[in-house]
Design a protein that fits this description.
The protein is an alpha+beta fold. About 35% of the residues lie in helices and about 30% in strands.
């Protein structure tokens, strides 16, 4: 995985969480994820292509965090995960992907994103776009935790694996 893509994604996730929660999240340590299960109650997943790299970003939100964010955004208390909350998780994941482009050193980078996939449930399978290593970093906020997962591979390498 190329740091020139990973670092902008991490910065953008942090910025997105800061804007939405009004608190700067405290990042944990970057580590290799050894399984495919979600850590949060609601997960948004966006597949993407950046130049010759394909990959994905998943944001998995703790129940407390996503309900707090939904309450803040809609100005209505949310106590249960509903379609509004699920939609918001997808939008936040998409925003984090789109925001990463401003942090990339090559401002002429070509980035293509899919619409977010969203699913509910702790320990649901997160199926990333590539079979490469998955990296995870958790961000703690006063309202809860967001787990970010990243996986990237060169497009040509991924096509060779699948054939």
């Amino acid at each position: 995985m190329r740091a020139e893509y990973l670092n902008p994604m991490l910065l953008s996730v942090m910025e997105t969480l800061t804007q939405i929660t009004h608190h700067e999240p405290c990042p944990g340590k970057l580590k290799v994820k050894k399984h495919e299960l979600a850590h949060g109650a609601v997960t948004g997943l966006v597949n993407l292509q950046i130049n010759d790299q394909v990959g994905s970003l998943a944001l998995s939100f703790s129940r407390d965090l996503i309900l707090n964010i939904a309450s803040e955004v809609t100005h209505t208390p949310h106590r249960h995960i509903d379609n509004t909350v699920l939609n918001l998780a997808g939008r936040l994941t998409y925003m984090a992907c789109r925001g990463a482009q401003q942090y990339m050193s090559d401002k002429n980078v070509v980035m293509m994103l899919t619409n977010p996939q969203v699913f509910q449930g702790f320990r649901k399978r997160v199926q990333h776009a590539v079979n490469n290593n998955k990296f995870m970093l958790q961000f703690e906020t006063p309202a809860g935790i967001c787990f970010s997962e990243f996986s990237f591979s060169r497009l040509r390498d991924e096509l060779e694996i699948r054939h």
